[in-house]
Amino acid sequence: MHVTVVETRHATHTAVDGVAVSGVVKRFADVEALAGVTLSVAPGEVVAVVGPSGCGKSTLLELVCGLLAPDAGTVKAPAAALMPQRDALLPWLSAEDNAGLALRVNGASKAQARAAARPYFAAFGLEDFEQARPAELSGGMRQRVAFLRTLLAGTPVLCLDEPFGALDALTRVQMQEWLAGALAREPRTTLLVTHDVDEAVVLADRVVLLSARPGRVVETLDVALPRPRRRTDPAVQALAGRALRTLGVQA
Ligand SMILES: Nc1ncnc2c1ncn2[C@@H]1O[C@H](COP(=O)(O)OP(=O)(O)O)[C@@H](O)[C@H]1O
Ligand SMILES: [Mg+2]
């Protein structure tokens, strides 16, 4: 059970721009989660990681964010903020105070944190919900607040762990379009974990496919398609189908 709200600790962090994961092995007692994973994320690049449940995707993000250390191999990354698999908003805080939480953790005053968060509310479709508590927000709105909190951490790298996994199918598609727009306006080096191959192809520059546990990279797909992309585009569907076949799912 992870209680991480938002983390900005450094991994093996030197002054590198992108993320470089090399030969990483991670075990939990006698469970081998990752068995020699190598991948990179160039500055400004969006890399999606797709793989079956339990193959070590969340573990990989925690390694990149410096919350875990590898048993073998190396992780090089600048400071990275994690948007955990559950939105992890604090129920007693308003949307704007949740959004500014990373700034508060880093020493900003409440007023400073609110001043930094507020200008984003309109662009995030959250206008007039600054004072709302998480329980008063829709699932999609909560995810946007959680994403804004991750963004406001101000780190060069974003690690997003199945950000839309808990949303209904329609909201998920809307949120994917929204995230594509947000990253186009404000590009960030992003590692996006998802179990949705369409989402991976719509959003990412490259898609890394992991095997079942212990996770290893089985294939990396380059998504050289113009943006904005629609999941119904034949070229998107062709790549998504290939990803599913590689993962052993009949498409
Ligand atoms: N803190 C932990 N302690 C023990 N086992 C863990 C821990 N975190 C993950 N695992 C195990 O490692 C494997 C990979 O987990 P995880 O990275 O959460 O997979 P995914 O996100 O791909 O579903 C699973 O078998 C999980 O039970
Ligand atoms: Mg996970």
Ligand inventory: adenosine-5'-diphosphate, magnesium ion
Number of strands: 9
Spatial order of the strands forming the largest sheet: 5-6-7-3-8-9
Percent helix among the residues? 25-40%
Note the overall shape.
globular
From the 3D coordinates, which CATH architecture of one domain would you assign? Answer: 3-Layer(aba) Sandwich
> Mind telling me the CATH class of one domain?
Alpha Beta
* SS class: alpha/beta
Low-confidence spans:
1-15
Examine the coordinates and then state which fold CATH places here, giving the name of the CATH topology of one domain. Rossmann fold
Strand content: 15-25%
Tag the structure with descriptive keywords:
6-stranded mixed sheet; binds adenosine-5'-diphosphate; single chain; 23% strand; 251 residues; Rossmann fold; 31% helix; alpha/beta; 3-stranded antiparallel sheet; binds magnesium ion; globular
Describe this structure in words.
With 251 residues, this protein is of the alpha/beta class. It has a domain at 19-90 and 156-246: Rossmann fold (3-Layer(aba) Sandwich), CATH 3.40.50. 31% of the residues lie in helices and 23% in strands. The protein contains eight helices and nine strands. The protein has helices at residues 57-64, 95-99, 101-105, 110-117, 139-152, 169-185, 197-203, 234-246; strands at 19-28, 31-41, 46-50, 72-76, 80-83, 157-161, 189-194, 206-210, 217-222. A six-stranded mixed beta sheet has the order 5-6-7-3-8-9, sandwiched between helices. Strand 8 (206-210) and strand 9 form a beta hairpin. Helix 7 crosses helix 8. The longest helix has 17 residues, at 169-185. The two termini are 33 Å apart. 41% of the residues are buried. Adenosine-5'-diphosphate is lined by residues 28, 31, 33, 51, 53-59, 213.
